[in-house]
What does this fold into?
Amino acid sequence: MKDWFNKGEHWIWISSAMVSISVVLVVGLMAMITYKGAVHFWPHAVYEFQVNQNGQSEKVIGELRDEKVREVTNPKTGKEEELTQYLIKVGNRDVYGIDFRWINGDVISSPLENLSKDILVIERFEYGNVFGHIVGASIAGTQVPDKKRLLNLLKEQVKHSTETHAKIKHIEKVLIGGINYKIEQLRFEEKKLRKHGAFTAEEEARIAAERAELQSEFVGYQAETEVLYKKLDSFGEITVEISNGQTLTVPVKNIVNFWRPNNMDFMDKVAFFGHSIGNFLFDDPREANTEGGIFPAMIGTITMVLLMTILVTPMGVIAAVYMREYAKDGPMLRMVRISINNLAGVPSIVFGIFGLGFFVYILGGSIDELFYDYALPSPTFGTPGLLWAALTMALLTLPVVIVSTEEGLSRIPRSLREGGLALGATKSETIMKIVLPMATPAIMTGLILAIARAAGEVAPLMLVGVVKLAPELPVDAIAPFVHLDRKFMHLGFHIYDVGFQSPNVEASQPLVYATSLLLVIIIVGLNIGAISIRNRLREKYKALE
It folds into this structure.
């Protein structure tokens, strides 16, 4: 045993145990997020049971989301007894004000296993889901008593309603949004010409003609949307009997989707699962981000991370090349290296404050005074936006890229540098054509770590560009296509907002897990791409190492 300790093998076993525990914890965490996130899209069974409480009886319809057992004191016997409580998602927020309610098991008179095959779940644009039985309907102004035919007609009407909503969204956000953007640019152009004394009669006539043409297009699109909104009112409505025998009328135009989960077989549930994931990925958020999709947040996250990668790579590589290849070793260089290492441990919120103070107010304000003075006092770059968020994240991850690149440069044999110089190449040519290409695997390693950290940061982004709900995407079809001055949504902030700022936390909990899973998938996807590039480069230069 003494020899075993003297050889240091116990440290090997301890290290292996710690690595194993870490792997198990990571895998367990990922499994929990995956399960909780995937369950959000799977159709849940809807229960209908009687509740007898305080001498009153009521019918409750909803999804069973959770149950717990707690110890209570029986008032008759005075003994401790176990009481099961059920968390039921009753929906119908416009009727009850809440989505969930806890019900004690001792007041439920009917078994929970009873599933009614006729219960309908309706997803609406607002006020949450509706759970109940159809008791009447007016489809396109016609009363439909046959329930089977009614469901088929309702499916067609919801499809037409969804298509109409999509047309309205396209007109309002893309076509009218583009016109508003052009009108705003004309206004800025006019202010710029007036400020510089170049607003001639010809320019005034040109701008007025362009503005009149755009206004004419705007009026046409507005009239088109009015027709579409009137068309939505013609799709009809259905009446549903919800909990406690109450009835609720739901216009078809407010329905996103409907299904009967208790009637579905396995393949129907799989199809519903895929459809729900598609809606989650490509729809806009609704109801203060607690429902709907996360498309704007997904686009904002990917755009910011890619822009951050473009900005941090040259800064980190140039700094590492200078310190390794050009700077003389001495107290100053050692101090710089210590500062870089310490910079990696600075809290991220400090970078956010620095980005807000330096990038937004000083640098952005200066850019506005120099190039966008005609737009003042409305700031263009002197306000949080995509560019400043990417630059702040670039500074946050810069130490990782510098250290990784410098380590890669230190592993390049000195003989390769001397060989390049001996063949007549300059030092810069040797570095650019021999040293840097061989160090690219290390550079990619630094970028992988930078991407992983930047994609998950929240605190600094709240100060330099991320918002709860952005009216426009940072990337669109309007030139210059990537709008660096726009605010954007981010998956990390979306998780924080939905999970901790939502007034209905229990209803938004599944969405938190689903968004977390998507964020992890995006980070893993970006990292896999970077790792594949690194491995190819490593194989390419393997023979020279």
Summary: Residues 192 and 374 are 5 Å apart (CA to CA). Residues 158-233 form one domain. The first strand starts at residue 46 and ends at 53.
